[in-house]
Amino acid sequence: MSEPAVPSGSAGFLHVNQEIAVRVDDPASKPVSVRIRLDIGYDGTDFIGWARQPGLRTVQGVLEESLSKVLREPIQLTVAGRTDAGVHAEGQVAHFDTAAEVDGPRLVHRLARFLPKDVRVKDVRPAPAEFDARFSAIRRHYAYRLTTAPYGAQPLQARHVVACRSDVDLDAMRVASEKLLGLHDFAAFCRRREGATTVRELQRFDWEREGELLTAYVSADAFCWSMVRSLVGGVLAVGEGRRTPDWIAGLLNERERSSAVTVAPAHGLSLIAVDYPAEAELAARNAQTREMRTVPAAEGCCGD
């Protein structure tokens, strides 16, 4: 298929639409690719998770389809955290490479018309070539929301807030959560994936109350599959008096997923932010993340 002619006065640009242009200074040369960062929010209720799956509605699939139409080239996204079915995001981050010259604010506006109402691209900006939404991340932050209201979640919150018992012991939950902080093997809280480590550094796990709303804030360098929901489910068992804080701390000694840990419902969970290092540190962080996480021998928990 032949390339359309360059309109007069465009001097080196091929206008694929009124808002996006592709550089063609030398038509015989391969266009130079640039890296673009997206900041994304979505209601995960009607998605089968983030990751693209043939024939199923996923966040990645919807976004890539819309971006490919707007930019008129195939777009593939790399994401900071591959959320499960029903899990939401307020601060998801992804990147892609393109030969297009992208005007960020205009692309945000254009995607608002292309995308369904349960997913939004909130910001578009160029990123350094070393930036990787997944491997450059140094910390991911999640929030899990519960309500102690006797009637359950308010109708406008029902897709994002999980009902729990009104008499949960928040102090006991805070004690239990604190016992899990640090670098540990969280195998008891994770669904095992072949070749994947379950060693993580849990940097924050605390609770805030606002009236009948309880919110758990959970931060780590990374999370394994279903880890946050399992942590919340385990601590909730302590708050309900069915388990003790020492019980949940003892789970850190297990090397297989524990059947005693109930996984909290997906719809209470939301990815709220992802942290990245300074630009000069991106390449080093990428290399570090790709290395297999291990607990130092001095910690004594994973020697076998």
Question: What would you say this structure looks like, in words?
Answer:
The protein is of the alpha+beta class. The chain has six helices and 13 strands. It has helices at residues 59-71, 104-114, 170-178, 227-239, 245-250, 282-290; strands at residues 13-15, 21-23, 34-42, 78-79, 88-98, 100-101, 119-127, 139-147, 162-163, 182-185, 199-210, 213-220, 269-275. The strands form two sheets. Strands 3, 4, 5, 7, 8, 9, 10, 11, 12 and 13 form a ten-stranded mixed beta sheet that branches. A three-stranded antiparallel beta sheet has the order 1-2-6, with no helix packed on it. A hairpin with a 2-residue loop joins β11 and β12 (213-220). α3 crosses α4. The longest helix has 13 residues, at 59-71. The protein is globular and about 60 Å long. The N and C termini lie far apart (60 Å).
Number of strands: 13
Kindly report the average pLDDT value: 87
Rg over C-alpha atoms, rounded to the nearest angstrom: 22 Å
Taking the sheet with the most strands, its summary is: 10 strands, mixed
The tally of helices reads 6
Distance between the termini: 60 Å
Label the overall shape: globular
| Regions with little confidence, pLDDT below 50 for 5+ residues | 1-28, 292-304
Oligomer: single chain
- Determine the strand fraction and express it as a percent band: 25-35%
Q: Structural class, from helix and strand content?
A: alpha+beta
Helix fraction? 10-25%
Order of helices and strands: EEEHEEEHEEEHEEEHHEH
What's the topology here?
Elements: E1 13-15, E2 21-23, E3 34-42, H1 59-71, E4 78-79, E5 88-98, E6 100-101, H2 104-114, E7 119-127, E8 139-147, E9 162-163, H3 170-178, E10 182-185, E11 199-210, E12 213-220, H4 227-239, H5 245-250, E13 269-275, H6 282-290
Parallel strand pairs: 5-13, 8-9
Antiparallel strand pairs: 1-2, 2-6, 3-5, 3-7, 4-5, 8-12, 8-13, 10-11, 11-12
Helix pairs in contact: 3-4
